[in-house]
Amino acid sequence: MAIDIEQELNHLGYPFESEGTRNLQVTSFSSISDAGSTDISFCYYEGDKAINYISKSNAGIILCKQSIKGKINPKNEQKLYFLDNPRLVFVQLFDKYSKDTETKEVSQYSIIHDSAKVGRGCSIGPYSVIDKNCVVGDNCIIGSRVSLKNCVVGDNCIIQTGTVIGEAGFAYERYDTNELLQFPHIGKVIISDNVEICANCSIARGSLSNTIIGKGTKLDALVHVAHNVKIGKNCELTAGTIIGGSTTVRDSTWTGLNSTLKDNIRVGDNVIVGAGAMVIKDVENNDIVAGVPAKSIKNKTNTNLTFLMAGQKD
Among 31, 51, 50, 49, which Cα is nearest to 40's? Predict the structure, then answer.
């Protein structure tokens, strides 16, 4: 499998400039530090840091930031491509050329209720349970020991090992005697297309309304989403994020490691929540919050790398 980078860049419509060996092709992908002459890699750093990484790399092709053009020369049998967003291009190329070609199958050790519906082209790992009336769309990958109850899963979703979706949430009323009575949970979990949920996550079903995960949103490992939460499109919730019940998170929001969003608040579009933050009140669109309790630090933060790691443009 030879990758014609210039053909691919032209097809993707990205303007670029290049220096180095003509018509060089590569066959595999690697990190900039480990790459060899047949690999393509990328460097999203700028300035001296970029020059340091690139000068030490043996990659055949390196996708670089446009800003370092003219500041470093390629080695023999090496070619540098200068682009606005080399990281994005690298991921797009990897996605195209590294698709899993293994035959998808449903493990004989999984349990699928007779009333459940599973779409075409799905893979379901051993000891996973898809309970009654669940719906799983086309081309989904369900890992091992996954539990799906009271939920609808869209097309092209990935749910990794150990995740539990659709159990009742944590809500109780007290009698005068202080004994606890569980609040009813009759809602579902609605997961839109192209959602990815990493290992050991927990997503509670809605109580009187549904819990919703928007199209294209990604959940890292050990994320907990409580009942009635509404999460928008293309969000990234990193490991350890906890979202309290009935909270709304709008589109393209990023939450840092071990951050907590209190129940019954609203977090706007394009928000960045810092690692370990405790968000206890509403957050406006396009804000950056951090700390305990979380406060806006948008005016103190203005680095391209911050936005890049959050998958956003500045």
Answer: 31
Residue 227: active-site member:
yes
**Continuous H helices in the chain:** 5-12, 47-56, 86-97, 304-309
- Supply angle C-alpha 242, 142, 251, rounded to 5: 40
CB 231 within 8 A of CB 266: no
Closest CA to 79 of 29, 30, 28, 38: 38
Q: How many residues does the chain have?
A: 314
Q: Check whether 95 has a pLDDT greater than 90.
A: no
Local structure of residue 208 (DSSP, 8 states): S
pLDDT(244) > 50: yes
**Over residues 194-213, mean pLDDT:** 97
Kindly name the residue from 11, 185, 224, 227 that is annotated as catalytic. Answer: 227
Q: Which long-range contacts (CB under 8 A, 24 or more apart) does 136-141 make?
A: 137/193, 141/104
Q: Give the Cα separation of 13 and 158 in Å (integer).
A: 29
Q: What is the CA radius of gyration of the chain?
A: 23
Look at the alpha carbons of 173, 175, 179, 182 in this order and tell me if their dihedral is positive or negative: negative
Tokens 């500041």, residue located = 71
Q: With CA atoms as reference, report the closest residue to 223 among 246, 187, 205, 199.
A: 199
> Does pLDDT of 313 surpass 80?
no
CB count in 10 Å sphere of residue 108 = 6
**Could you please report the per-residue DSSP string of 237-300?**
E-TT-EE-TT-EE-TT-EE-TT-EE-TT-EE-TT-EE-TT-EE-S-B-TT-EEETTTTEE-GGG
Q: What is the model's pTM?
A: 0.84
- Tokens 């305990």 belong to which residue? 292
